[in-house]
Amino acid sequence: TCSVAKKELDDLEQWKEEHRPGPIKLVPQRLGGKESEAQARQKQQMMLMQSKYQQKHKREEYVKAKKAAEEAEILKKKAIQREKAERLEGKKRQQEMQRREMFLEDQYYKTNELLNRLDLGLPKSDSCQIANSGPESTAWTRSHTYKQALQEDENRRLEEMKQEQRRKAELMEFKQKQEEEARTRAHQNEQRRVNNAFLDRLQNKMQPNSIYQPGYSG
Asked: Is the C or the N end of the chain the one with fewer CB within 10 Å?
């Protein structure tokens, strides 16, 4: 058995030796691309410039979108504040109208009560003071009371007008303050954009052959 196995191994080695592949012969060819090194570097530089331009364009689009979103948010807040101020103003006007109606109604009842007392005579504590008052005195008292009521109503309306003007001035000042804050924020955003562009240009000048990296946003 061992001799048979040995004979098979010898036959296998002999077969391998007979079928061993010979040397490979290839026709010499020029390897590498069709472009020269200068052309390859120029192409690489063009691709780098295109990449920088695309990234700069994307950054500008992002800044514009962010600025538009901030302005939309500012307008939204201003609209909400305006709506709140209008509701508050309407509520105040309604309260003023209610107070005015109540005041006029109360003044009407007081005036009627005073006129009725003058017609029927005052209580005993005041009867001695008007014991000798005649019809002319009573008419004068009515006229004086009516004029006094008109004067008080006029004074009250003037005071309401002053308060209304004061509220309008405060509201106008509040709106102007909001607009000034919005302009300040817009100016700061624009200044930040200019600074970022300047830093990008400065970095590109300092590192012309390096891979582009976005500038630091100060």
From this structure: N
